[in-house]
């Protein structure tokens, strides 16, 4: 599984085995062995590979489908949805959804909801990046 994931990530980045080897200070032969399952990298090399592709070591090892530790999980998704619903309901109940004293049309209202949702997701991801202890990042 690791080998398949490594090969896919390398190809997605349009890297050769030689280029990846140089980036992590191992030979092209080692990269080939990793991809074919004939050899497994040590922990330092595994972390270097994760850093090159900006993914977690858990993703490389097939333990998670989330490429990054800060990716939102199902609990985060529910939290974003609840917060968004609460914000929109609060804005509706206070007649705060208006522009120049005129109520928002449906299209503008939908765009506002999308913008708020993206902002909530971004804030959640940034908080995970900043406040997740290093020992839980991979």
TrEMBL record:
Domain HTH cro/C1-type positions: 6-60
Transmembrane regions listed in the UniProt entry: none
Record Pfam families: HTH_3
UniProtKB keywords: DNA-binding
MF term (GO), any: DNA binding
Highest taxon, organism lineage: Bacteria
SMART domains xref list: HTH_XRE
Name of the protein in its database record: HTH cro/C1-type domain-containing protein
Species per Swiss-Prot/TrEMBL record: Listeria fleischmannii FSL S10-1203
């Amino acid at each position: 599984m690791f080998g398949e994931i490594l090969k896919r990530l390398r190809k997605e980045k349009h890297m050769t085995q030689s280029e990846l080897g140089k980036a992590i200070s191992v030979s092209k032969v080692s990269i080939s062995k990793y991809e074919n399952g004939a050899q497994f990298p040590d922990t330092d090399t595994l972390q270097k590979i994760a850093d090159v592709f900006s993914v977690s070591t858990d993703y490389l090892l097939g333990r998670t489908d989330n490429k990054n530790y800060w990716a939102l999980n199902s609990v985060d998704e529910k939290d974003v949805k609840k917060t968004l619903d609460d914000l929109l309901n609060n804005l509706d109940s206070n007649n705060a959804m208006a522009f120049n004293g005129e109520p928002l049309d449906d299209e503008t209202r939908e765009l506002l909801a999308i913008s708020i949702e993206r902002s909530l997701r971004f804030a959640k991801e940034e908080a995970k990046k900043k406040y997740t202890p290093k020992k839980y990042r991979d």
